Amino acid sequence: MPIFRIYTNTPKSEIPDGFLLQASHFIAKQLGKPESYVTVRIHPEQMMCHGGSTDPCASVELLSLGSLGPTNNEHAKAISDFIEKHLKIPRQRFFINFVDLDSSNIALGGKTFG
């Protein structure tokens, strides 16, 4: 049930075609979760700055039931590589916030996971 959210000041016109599906597949593989549970949201053209500059930047969030914690360093490297490659945002220009969700706080199909 991963949710991958990217807020960026990158213009919508510079988001590559197919990015959402590429990101969905990437997150499913990275976390070992079924892609049918993955949600990806990108919010381009945000008014934002990072480190006192409005150069291309982002705020990245990965929420998941499990698959986070001790492996976050591996995830951070893989996500940074992915964002640099596809969105051309340098890894020094975004933070990644990892959130390990409680199963009783997430529902799908009218029923919580825990």
CATH architecture annotation name:
2-Layer Sandwich
Number of helices: 2
Domain tally? 1
Count every beta strand, where a strand is a DSSP E run of 2 or more residues. 6
| Whole-angstrom Rg | 14 Å
Poorly predicted parts? none
Keywords: Cytokine, Isomerase, Secreted
Protein name: L-dopachrome isomerase
Subcellular location: Secreted
GO molecular function: cytokine activity; dopachrome isomerase activity; phenylpyruvate tautomerase activity
Can you describe this structure in just a few lines?
The chain is α/β, with parallel strands linked by helices. 25% of the residues lie in helices and 25% in strands.
Write structural notes for this entry:
It is an enzyme of class 5 (isomerase). Its main location: secreted. Its EC number is 5.3.2.1, 5.3.3.12. Belongs to the MIF family. The chain has 114 residues and is α/β, with parallel strands linked by helices. It has a single domain, classed as Macrophage Migration Inhibitory Factor (2-Layer Sandwich), CATH 3.30.429. It is built from two helices and six strands. The chain has a four-stranded mixed beta sheet, covered by helices on one side. Strand 5 (107-108) and strand 6 (111-112) form a beta hairpin. Helix 1 (19-31) runs antiparallel to helix 2. 18% of the residues are buried.
